[in-house]
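Progress report, Aim 2. The chain analyzed during this reporting quarter is listed below.
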Amino acid sequence: MTVPSTRLFFDTEFTAFRDGKMLSLGLVTETGAEFYVELPSHAEGLVLNDFVRQEVLAQFGSVPGARAATLAEAGSRLAEFLQTLPGSLEVCCDYKLDASYFTECLRAANQASALRTKYRLCDIASEASSAAGRMALLQTFSKEGQPLRRHHALLDARALKNAWLARNDTVSRDLAYQWLFQCGEVADHAKRTLGDIHAYTDDELEDTHDFIQWLFPLPRPSPYNTFAVTPTLAEFKLLAADRLVRQGVLASWQRMLTFYGLQVLPTGAVSRGPNWRQRAPNWVVPAGHNDLRLSRILEALCLFGLRPQALSTFQALRDIVTEHRGAKAATSPVQFWQAAIGNDGAAGA
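Predicted structure tokens for the chain:
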């Protein structure tokens, strides 16, 4: 009787892309068995970049009993784990250096030859990078309450497994693209990532009219940007449930508050910020496209499950325009902003 093969997914972290050393290896089987080992000794005496120190080494010690003194010890543990698995093994990764470090680890323990017929390495980068796969990968990282972060080899292995399992799932283009954009994984139609737009100067934000629809999407198309995606209300509920997506929207909200000369207080209230005098003349008195932008921002915040932020922003805007434009002139924008919070279809830019 032929024993079915076992599929495994793994990831490694290392000191550098060139002439580097493996720092950790995480592995997950399709059925949920896990292996993890880390080698802090490989970082000793090396000048490492900030990424390795802050994102990789800072997470060492999170998994009890994972420390190995040498690569040979790590390889012996890995070989022992692999031998416990039934049948032949399909060992999957999405990067060529991962495969190299996996083999090097076994060689250091003189186990590569003994296991040669037991496993084969598989590159699943293309399969795991489907829109649904990338969403599943990001969802792994955004799971609430987990002690590990992205770039921990074990969590990354779990994410790769989830990406592969979801590779053939059907998701709409608008949902997938907005999800990935808010997480900083893809660029918009003008080849700008979320971070690129956040780095715009205030003058660039004022003079550019096709970014706001990406930062704050709505369920309907905008005449000012026909390239921007328009998730459905049902898709917005999925987006709002993801921690990383909400983080992206909150970062955009805070950037736009700064653009308007506003800030968020520790209480959550929105008030005039340190740059109020410089920014206020640009939008407070002359009614114009920024009123429409603000309608869009308020409605999108609600759609992303960030209604408290929308309410605090609305209250600040209402008070400011009433003070500076007068009660009569403020009536129209305030009504639009109120309607946007009510999510009843008020128009945004």
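The beta strands are 6-14, 22-29, 34-38, 89-93, 119-123, 262-264, 270-272. The longest strand covers residues 6-14. These observations will guide the mutagenesis work planned for the next reporting period.
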